[in-house]
């Protein structure tokens, strides 16, 4: 809700203002069900052909703690969860005090007056609206369980304020609470209507979203971990193995629950090493399997990953990055696993690394990862992160009949087979699964020792050189097939912002904002991080400044992890880094401020 | 589910858990494999190594059970004995140190049409891979695990192993081993293994009997086979070898293999102890349990193609 779309409250009678978008931040404690309100709003947006993006923080402890859920709903394109909130819904004093600064001047703070004492010094800047949410909820549903249902009461207030579609919300509440004890649904609906019919007191205006451009087809609403898990299923993955770790656990929980419907299995293993080993075993058995983790677990998996490179074994490894190193910041976001993904392990062990840029992308990157693994017989790492894993977005429903694939192994007998055939120029050798008869009677061994073409150990220097080259060449062959990423904005100009992974949205919004202000800024987002796609040097040559925007440290030499990689690859001194390590997603304003301070000559077209 | 290879090999041997369809030529066409057809590289073991007998008996087992090349999958970790797959002419895997069991579990759980044999040594099984041993046993994953126990690290040239007896002088314990050794049989039973047997390379008929019985067992079958390292621990097992003046004590005929307590008692007998099946119970494997979960889940989506199942799930996320 920019200032153009939401005029500050003025004197006079309440009015309904049309808006194109709104950012609502809900602040409370982790057990208050604030994610549920956010989830309802996001799904409602999805069903109303609107765009939506959410952002949440959760404490790393089980017993609760401060938590927020921010949802940005828009009738146009929504690229980030929003720098500033238009409305803050605060359940406690700490929610109010800690988050009032996230509200734009003139924004509305809606607070639970049973718990929050408003501060006079903020009443000039922000529009205050106190409602005894806790007390009214108890009144409405006569709850004995203290605090239960106040989230739904608050949802009713928000629905009133934004004139949201009540029947659709009731339906969503029914889907969420239906099936349980009928009284639970009745209580939820009672709380919702109590909130909806409560007077908004001194609020001088309410809002109504303008109709969005009608999208064709259905929209689905989910977070990045959901999309990743279902993408793997669509890709034909039917076996996985993992060990619980935040924020990867959701993916394994979904696969454990869903795979049996497809005749597949997900195994919870004793540790990270067993997980990658079991998945690798299933891949060896004929069908690309998946394992995953977050940073600490990825470290544990690297020896086995090296075996996968050496033995030329397909496998998909998901790394849902969080703050590191070590246990680090388990519930915060960071993009600091790029180095381990690309280079982690001993020996020369080239592998494939892909990073999805949005929730929708998680679904399709999963499919691409499986297909690259199958074709090139190589481990493929999907670098997601905590932000994309937990944020909710709406996207067009995939065409399942088209995208779902069957990757069952072909056990047709073959005349002869060399698992490590050196005669192919691109280094790619088709695999056969166990169970396949080899008519020559010569069977290859899958091995981590340097080997000959049949996988038998060799100490031959020549063979080690040839096989090392084979493992490299096949990824060079892959690189040649990759598309050069498209520049967002003009293909030539002053500043190029380069990003990877979950930062695509805020970077693009930064480009839009900068260009609207007359600056010459474009952006480039890289999905294929190892191997890099061809043609990047040509893109870079069109700009004076190349700023790599990352959520990681500037490192010993002043560059983030992708920044360092690109400098090493392209030897281009124009490449510099914009990095940060606060464990939070980029704000658009921060990207722009940092970019400006990096470009001494200014961001205007030179 | 599609049948990718049906046009070539007519006889279906069943739909696999994960939807792959296995096919095989009619067995009438194929003669049982000869030792020559099963043998691959000449073993790299030292002359006199106990592992030779285990390999010879594995060949014999394959011959006797008329197994076909493509139906056997031999998996090993790292160590002298773990070189095993290179010597067998069949699909095989030489994996990383200590992790052969989870790798083999991945094969077993996704390909019920294959016989999965895992070979390794005491370092692989009880040191670096100790936790995998416990968990594969407790999950009762269908596969056969033969540990060639020589009480020493041979490949790295004489360091103390988790089964080295107290006082064994190695390069890492020049004054004699001080750490109490693991009792593999006791550990296997305690971890929940459903087939636990002990044998020694100097009694080939007995090794064969144990591998035969292990292969028939529907579950995690574990065989500890004493296998002398003539280079770094010569004479370790003489007390169990009648040809060297020792005694070979078979498990008493009256031993009840389903009696866990009685089995523990056998494991506590000092060296040379007993040889034979200590413990054997029938309990559902993870393979069966997962298949049961799957048939329940698949029943609910009966008649739907995979993409339609996914469509149904997404219908709820609009």
Report on this structure.
The complex is a heterodimer of chains A (606) and B (318). Chain A is α/β, with parallel strands linked by helices and 606 residues long. In chain A, β3 (51-57) and β4 (66-74) form a beta hairpin. In chain B, the strands form three sheets. In chain B, strands 4-3-5-6-10-9-12-11 form an eight-stranded mixed β-sheet, with helices on both faces. In chain B, strands 1-2 form a two-stranded antiparallel sheet. In chain B, strands 7-8 form a two-stranded antiparallel ribbon. Chain B has three domains: 1-28, no CATH class; 31-283, Thiamin diphosphate (ThDP)-binding fold, Pyr/PP domains (Rossmann fold, 3-Layer(aba) Sandwich), CATH 3.40.50; 285-318, no CATH class. Helix content of chain B is 31%, strand content 18%. Chain B has helices at 35-38, 51-64, 100-110, 122-128, 130-139, 184-191, 204-216, 260-267, 286-300, 306-315, and strands at 11-15, 21-24, 72-76, 91-94, 115-121, 143-149, 152-153, 159-160, 195-200, 220-226, 249-250, 274-280. Chain B has ten helices and twelve strands. Chains A and B meet through α1, β9, α8, α10 and α11 of A and β2, β4, α3, α5 and α9 of B. β17 (445-447) of chain A pairs parallel with β4 of chain B, so a sheet runs across the interface.
Radius of gyration of chain A: 26 Å
Number of domains of chain A: 4
Kindly report the CATH topology of the largest domain in chain A. Answer: Pyruvate-ferredoxin Oxidoreductase, domain 3
Q: Provide the succession of SSEs of chain B.
A: EEHHEEHEHHEEEHEHEEHEHH
CATH homologous superfamily grouping of the largest domain in chain B: Thiamin diphosphate (ThDP)-binding fold, Pyr/PP domains
- Please give the CATH architecture of the largest domain in chain B: 3-Layer(aba) Sandwich
Largest interface: A-B, 76 and 71 residues
CATH class of the largest domain in chain A: Alpha Beta
From the spread of the alpha carbons, the general shape of chain A counts as: globular
What topology, given as strand order, has the largest sheet of chain B? 4-3-5-6-10-9-12-11
Unreliable spans of chain A are 1-12
Number of distinct beta strands of chain B: 12
- Give the tally of structural domains of chain B: 3
The fraction of residues in strands of chain A falls at: 15-25%
Please indicate the percent range of residues of chain B in DSSP E strands (runs of 2 or more). 15-25%
User: Any idea what the radius of gyration of chain B is?
Assistant: 21 Å
Question: Helix content range of the residues of chain B, please?
Answer: 25-40%
